[in-house]
Structures are given as structure tokens and as C-alpha cells.
Amino acid sequence: MAIAWSLRRCVASLLAMGTVLPSAQAVYYKISTPDEIRESARTLAYDMMLFYQGNKTGEIPGILPGPPTEHKGDYYWWEGGAMMGTYIDYWYLTGDPSYNHVITEGLLHQTGPNEDYMPPNHTASLGNDDQGFWGMSAMLAAENKFPNPPEDKPQWLALAQAVFNTQAHPDRHDETCGGGLRWQVPPMNMGYNYKNTIANGCFFNLGARLARYTQNETYAKHAAKTFEWLWNVNYIDHESWSVYDGGHVEHNCTDVNKAQFSYNVALLLQGSAFMYNYTNGSDLWRGRVENLLNSTLRDFFPEGIAFEVPCEGRQGACTADMLSFKGYVHRWLAATTKIAPFTREKILPVLRTSAQAAVNQCTGGATGRRCGFYWSGGVFVDPAVDKTSGAGEAMSALAAVSSLLIDEVAPPATNTTGGISKGDPDAGSRSKDTFEVLAPVTTGDRAGAAILMILMLGGAIGAWGWMSLGD
Ligand SMILES: *[C@@H]1O[C@H](CO)[C@@H](O)[C@H](O)[C@H]1NC(C)=O
Ligand SMILES: *[C@@H]1O[C@H](CO)[C@@H](O)[C@H](O)[C@H]1NC(C)=O
Ligand SMILES: *[C@@H]1O[C@H](CO)[C@@H](O)[C@H](O)[C@H]1NC(C)=O
Ligand SMILES: *[C@@H]1O[C@H](CO)[C@@H](O)[C@H](O)[C@H]1NC(C)=O
Ligand SMILES: *[C@@H]1O[C@H](CO)[C@@H](O)[C@H](O)[C@H]1NC(C)=O
Ligand SMILES: *[C@@H]1O[C@H](CO)[C@@H](O)[C@H](O)[C@H]1NC(C)=O
Ligand SMILES: *[C@@H]1O[C@H](CO)[C@@H](O)[C@H](O)[C@H]1NC(C)=O
Ligand SMILES: *[C@@H]1O[C@H](CO)[C@@H](O)[C@H](O)[C@H]1NC(C)=O
Question: Which ligand lies nearest the alpha carbon of 66?
Fold first, then answer.
């Protein structure tokens, strides 16, 4: 809390100091009625697509320009997967199929030879979270009844099961810290000694959703066990339900890095909502949903507007990864209202104030409608001042606006309520984590964005010790 407010004051003073160019333009996007929302989302989706090169001749389908480690652009592999999910929701919420072919092509191109989102181009730097983001987008395609791929291609549900199965495999789990997944998959990678919330959160979330979709208890058992592990290692605060970033195996995960990122808590919230629904409304999962929802709104929506606590308000402190988090949080909150309807009245007003703040600052660029990152500031921040008008920011505004249509759509489907995706419980079993043959890498395609940034943020966030990676 204290951190959030001091950062907000910091933004306020930045604005007061005139480092932010005042916007001359009127607000471009209107979102008062469903028609206005659809129209605004259509333009936001078009503008976001301009960042994507993957459907052009000679470019690679599924990814945004990158990775930065190869000086090919700002975006890591996982963010392409997150983008695919954003457009699956865009179609589901608005009914506009314009990008479905682009998204289908991207989702299928990145599956890798074993159809489990471990493509050779990215396995050397693979995080469980990176793979998890692609798996969650495949899961979403199944839940939203996104048009099926051709029959000779891997199917959405099977792809999600493949990701889950590779991660549930005993090879990816060990007894350090009493269980849990490591951040990185290849043992020689920096970050292999870090067990973090995002890696385990993706696995938990996917397990909860597979349980509800297939009614297969095995997924639910893994999900529940992972949640309990996150609780036992205190990555979820037992008093405040704030959700922290992770810890190191050499400290038995007791060196909890207390950086809070919005996507960690929102991912656990959405997964808990699926478990709540799967368990027919159990008190246990209802309590977890309530507490995580309170924590999400308290820590990340001061005045009802999404605010990325650990980096926002400090010029240049948010990485390209972090600049995309607000969109996922909006989408996961919206989905939560469908499967845990008791949260609806609390969530919808916040999604609205936050989306309104998002579009209020989409007044930049030559078009007068480009979006930035500083939603609570109310004005577009010129990229010359702070590089915050890229794909993540565009994706977040798109997600915030399209999620306002959540009341208009059917809940996520299941195998028994109209789902049309064909599964394969054994998917992913052809895979083997044979990384010893690969050259060591030192930087990952990191969805677990915290790692490098924490070094830079240390002083501002607090007094806990950050143990340098690779020690
Ligand atoms: C890529 O997709 C966009 C959006 O659908 C479309 O406007 C563009 O023409 C496509 N480009 C190619 C080469 O297919
Ligand atoms: C892997 O990377 C190479 C080099 O950038 C590229 O040509 C190829 O299309 C990529 N393969 C996949 C499946 O994305
Ligand atoms: C390591 O942490 C786990 C999980 O918190 C705990 O169950 C276990 O007892 C700890 N082991 C040691 C040696 O402290
Ligand atoms: C939820 O209720 C249905 C219908 O009564 C039942 O078949 C199912 O086993 C229940 N699920 C759980 C996890 O208790
Ligand atoms: C589970 O989700 C369905 C929508 O799929 C909803 O109608 C139902 O009320 C939810 N169950 C509970 C216990 O909230
Ligand atoms: C969540 O916050 C509301 C106030 O907004 C409060 O009434 C409720 O008791 C809280 N729930 C839990 C589980 O702490
Ligand atoms: C639902 O799952 C069962 C068991 O996996 C399968 O036999 C059935 O075909 C599935 N139904 C649909 C509509 O996919
Ligand atoms: C349930 O899921 C587990 C784990 O993937 C799998 O081994 C099992 O075959 C599944 N059961 C059914 C009935 O599909």
C-alpha cells in the first residue's frame, strides 16, 4: 500500500513538473455503450496489429518483434503467446473474426515438433511461465470455442494438456522448498535456482481450467497442491494476501523476494475462481477468491485504476514485459466474474473506471489515438519522455476496453457445456527435457519479468535482500 501511494505521488509530481507533454487532443475512444465499446475495440485491435509482423512474407508467425537478446526487437517469445490470447478474447467479446486466421496461424506455428509449446528456437531459454502463457492461450481457445484448427493439426485442448503434462512431469519437480516448479526449465540457465510465483501460477491456472473443462480430478489435484505450496512457502502473504515474486532453492525458498507484480495475484485469483467453480462453490475456494480479489483491488487498483506498483511512476523502470501486465489483469478479472459470479458486482465497476482511464490517455501519435502506459495520469506520455507506447500498452488498452463486454458473452465452455475442442490426455508425453545437449544461455525469454528489474528497483521497493541470480 505505502509503495503504491508513494509511487502515485511520484507520478503526480512528474506531471506537475511538466515532464509529461500535455495532451491537446480530445479523448478519441468512446466506451459508454456496447456499440461504442465494440467500435473502440475494433480500432484498438487494428492499431495493436501494426506491431505484429508475423503474417508478413519472411516473418515468423506467432511472435512480436524480438527477442531483445538478439537485437531483433523489444519482445520476448512469451508475449506473442499472450497476444494470441488477447485476440482470442477480442473475438469472443466483440464477435469480430478479422484476426482469427492470423491468431490460428501464430498459435500453430509456435507449438514445436512435439506439439507442446517447446519450439527449438526457444527451448534453450525456456521458462515454465513462457510455455505456460502459450498453454493458457490454447486453453482459452478451447474455453471460448475459438474455431478449431484443421483436423491434421494439434487441437487447442490437446495443446493445453501437453503444456500441463510436460510441467506436471516429475522431471520438472523436485523436493527443494518442499515442491513447486522452478522458473527456468534448462538446468544451466540463470534462474533455474529460482522457484517463482509466475511459473507455478501458470501451472496452477492451467490445471484449474483443465479440471473444470474436462472434469478430470487429476488436474484439480495438481492445481490444489500447487496452490498449497505457494501458500506454504509464503509467496502468498498469510495476513494481507499480497502475492510475492519468488525465492531461491539454496535458501529453501525462505528468501522471499517481496516484489509484487499485478499478473501474479490476478493469475492466482482467476485460477482460484476456476477451482471454486469446479468444486461447485466450495467454501475453501470461495475464501481464496475473496481474499485474492480484495488483495488485487487494494494493491493494484488505487482509485479504481490499474497501476503497476513495482515500476510505474519511475521513468524507464517498467520493462517491455511489465508494460503488458495491465491487459492480462483486466481479462482475468473479467473471466472471474463468469465462473465466480459472486465477484461480479465488485469487479465490473473497477474494470470500467480503469478502462475509462486507459482510453483517456490514448491520444498520442500522428493518429491522435495511440495509447501509453500511465492510465492514472490522464494524459499520453510522449515516447520521447518515456518509451511507453509499444505493443504491451496497446494490448492492455485493447484488453481493458473489450473486457467491458463480458456481460454479453457466454461463460467459458466445458466438455459438457458445448465445448468443441478435442483433447488428448496423453499429449506432451513425447517430450523430454533433454537440455544438457544445449549451449548455456544467460538470459531467458522471461515472462518472469521480475528478475533483472529487481536489481534496479531494489532501493525503492523495500529492505528485503535480493540475492543475485547465478550465485
Ligand atoms: C496481416 O494481417 C493484417 C490484419 O488482418 C492484414 O491487414 C494484413 O493484410 C495481413 N498481411 C498479410 C501479408 O497477410
Ligand atoms: C526459428 O528461427 C529461425 C531464425 O530466426 C526462423 O527462420 C524460423 O522460422 C523459426 N522457426 C519457427 C518454427 O518459428
Ligand atoms: C523447506 O521448505 C519446505 C516448504 O516450506 C518445508 O516443508 C521444509 O521443511 C523445509 N526444509 C528445511 C530443511 O528447512
Ligand atoms: C459438482 O456437482 C456435480 C453435480 O452434482 C457432481 O457430478 C460433481 O462431482 C461435483 N464436483 C465436485 C468437484 O464435487
Ligand atoms: C460456475 O460457472 C457457471 C458458468 O459456467 C455459473 O453459471 C455457475 O453459477 C458457477 N458456479 C458457482 C458455484 O458459482
Ligand atoms: C473483502 O473486502 C470487503 C470490503 O471491500 C470486506 O467486506 C470483506 O470482508 C473482505 N473479504 C475478506 C475475505 O477479507
Ligand atoms: C468429453 O470428454 C470425454 C472423456 O474425455 C470424451 O469421451 C468426449 O468425447 C468429450 N466430449 C466432447 C463433446 O468433446
Ligand atoms: C486424467 O488426466 C490424467 C493426467 O493427464 C490422465 O493420465 C488420465 O488419463 C485422465 N483421465 C481421463 C479419464 O481422461
Answer: 2
Q: Encode pLDDT of 127-174 as tens digits.
A: 999 999 999 999 999 999 999 999 999 999 999 999 999 999 999 999
pTM given for the model: 0.90
Tell the burial category of 315 from Cβ atoms under 10 Å away from its Cβ (0-12, 13-18, 19+): middle
CA distance 171 to 84: 29
Count of domains observed in the chain: 1
pLDDT in tens, 373-394: 999 999 999 887 788 889 999 9
Cell numbers linked to 84:
494470441
Question: Which region, left, alpha or beta, applies to residue 32 given φ > 0 means left and ψ of -120 to 50 means alpha?
Answer: alpha
415 lines ligand 8 (CB under 6 A): no
Residue 295 is part of which domain span?
2-419+428-464
Q: Which of 231, 125, 139 is nearest to 180 (CA)?
A: 231
Residue 444: left (phi > 0), alpha (psi -120 to 50), or beta?
beta
* Beta carbon of 187 within 6 Å of any ligand 5 atom: no
Q: Ligand 1, closest atom to CA 98?
A: 5
Please indicate, yes or no, if residue 394 is contained in any of the structural domains. Answer: yes
Residue 471 lies in a domain: no
Name residues contacting ligand 2 (CB within 6 A): 60, 109, 119, 121
Give a yes or no: residue 449 inside a domain: yes
Q: How far is the CA of 55 from the centre of ligand 1 (A)?
A: 6
CA of 418 to the centre of ligand 5 (A): 15
Rounded distance from Cα 176 to ligand 1 centre (Å): 48
The dihedral formed by the CA atoms of 283, 288, 294 and 296, expressed in degrees to the nearest 10: -150
Q: Is residue 284 situated within a structural domain?
A: yes
Count CB-CB contacts under 10 A for residue 70. 8
Encode pLDDT of 8-42 as tens digits.
444 444 443 334 444 455 899 999 999 999 999 99
- C-alpha distances in angstroms, 463 versus 89, 223, 373, 449, 466? 39, 32, 27, 20, 9
Looking up residue 175, the CATH number of its domain turns out to be 1.50.10.20
